[in-house]
Amino acid sequence: MQRALEFALSLTLPDDEAALTDWLLAVLHKHWQPQGALVGLPEFSGRQLECRGLIGSTPVALSLEADDFGHPLSYVMLKNQVRIWDTLYGGARIDNAAFRQLLMDVGAKHGLFALPIPDAAGKIVGVLGVFDEASRLWAWRNSGDLELLLQVYVRQLARVQSLRHNQRESTQLRASLRQIAGESEQRRLKTTLLESQLVGQSVPARQLREQIDQLAGHSLSVLIQGETGAGKEVVARLLHQCSARADRPFVAINCAAIPENLIESELFGYLKGAFSGAQGNKEGLVAQANGGTLFLDEVGDMSLPMQAKLLRVLETRSYRPLGSDKECHSDFRVLAATHQPLDAQVAEGCFRQDLFHRLCQSQILVPALRDRAEDISLLSNHFITVFGEREGKRFGTLRRSLLTLLLGYAFPGNVRELRNLLEVACAHTADGDDLGIEALPLELLSRLENDARVHDDDYNHIHDLRQAISDYEAAVIAARMRYYQGNRLRVAESLNIARRTLDHKCLKLEVQ
Prior knowledge:
This protein has 512 residues and is an alpha/beta fold. Helix content is 51%, strand content 15%. This is AAA family ATPase.
């Protein structure tokens, strides 16, 4: 009983195929004590038979061709037959050099008892070879003990393989769940970033955030167009922060603010002595942007000669610092912004067409503030909070009188003008007070009120309400069609109507 329990206990220890094969060899060595034993299991392709065994007490390992009849193990597996060779010198064909060396180690007087190893379904999963004198081999064959041992081995092998398979599936499942959780968290952080940096719940604001989220996922160049102060640099930074390059540099250069004779040295850098006043080496912005993003603001103001040099850099990602005779490489994504109508400049010959197409692989149109006036209240509260935290104040609410004035203003300077206006108002508001009209200097208040009076209308000129509504509807649709460059799907989404409804209205109102 004790030996049976010890045997059962030893069987519970192996937890993989290799350990279980070692267990089988150890049991054979301890209880049967053959001169040699060899267990062969096919590797994953089935072409090779990976063999492990013992010759005496010395471990051996060799790899044999599974379909090579130059050794008897292949014959036994392929024929699915138990075979005994009383001697392997002249008794069996042995052409395999590695197997011949194994026989020399075993000794000339020994034979081979070879048994295929079937699984529960009868499929052959391996082979066992036992080396010893012929009389002992035949005694083992007649007793059937080795067949029973192999049944124990193959059933335990199936359990081990099933366990390893389940463990692999469990590991893959945990990895997938971690990946899903990571992607979900990354998505949440990206959404939070977009909503905190690009404030607004209007249709144009939501569409802009969606477009940034989509374009941040690739490395194509993006041309950002929009009016001055609309937030083009904010969009560029968000494209960088939401991309895979977020942890690398974001390098911005204002092409309109740098003198033409300096823009080349600013972009490409220079070596000491490259020109008068070059007292040392300077790394250019293209080099600084390596691995990150290069943002060219107001690119429409760049000179034609500089446009040609920039085009070459964008095509090859190679540049040459001033005074250097060696090319340098920089891996960067390029974003460009301008308030200029570049397509018109291309037609006039003021901007290179090939550079325009290189910069405009993707395009974003940043809406003017007047086209998302419903966001003025949210933007105002956002800026008031920002200025309050900066100045250590806790402001109250934005009074209705000031909000009404802001909603009636056209904001030619867009979000930047609203921000500056509220910064002035916060500076003139005491801690804990609400922001009202009295917080604005007279010149700012006059500008807002005059603009509101210009846009005020008592509608006394209207004599046909149906025609007035039709004209206004046609004007709104025509303006939105111009803004979205004829993209009817985006126009329909921005007006919160169905595409079919928009098509019907365009036909009825004769809007192209």
